[in-house]
Write a structure and sequence with these properties.
Helix content: 55-70%
Shape: globular
Structural class: mainly alpha
Number of helices: 4
Order of helices and strands: HEHHEH
Strand order of the largest sheet: 1-2
Radius of gyration: 15 Å
Distance between the termini: 48 Å
Number of strands: 2
Largest sheet: 2 strands, antiparallel
């Protein structure tokens, strides 16, 4: 892989991963994921943990973990 190709791929990763507010992340997520109750639960969980802004990738990792939590 050439250096130019590597730089282009790295810049795409940076463009896809940028800081968002929790509200903005959930709004964007709801446009592609129809599980609005689950997104609302994630939003509430993040607020209770004191998270209001983070990188897109970090939000997505925590959302995926949230969707796989067992129900109590």
């Amino acid at each position: 892989m050439s250096d130019k190709t590597k730089r282009v791929e790295e810049s795409k990763k940076i463009e896809d991963n940028f800081p968002l507010t929790l509200d903005e992340f959930c709004a964007r997520l709801s446009s592609t994921d129809g599980r609005v109750e689950l997104i609302g639960g994630f939003h509430a969980s993040e607020l209770s943990d004191g998270v209001s802004k983070d990188m897109t990738d970090n939000f997505m990792k925590r959302f995926i973990a949230f969707t796989n939590k067992p129900v109590k």
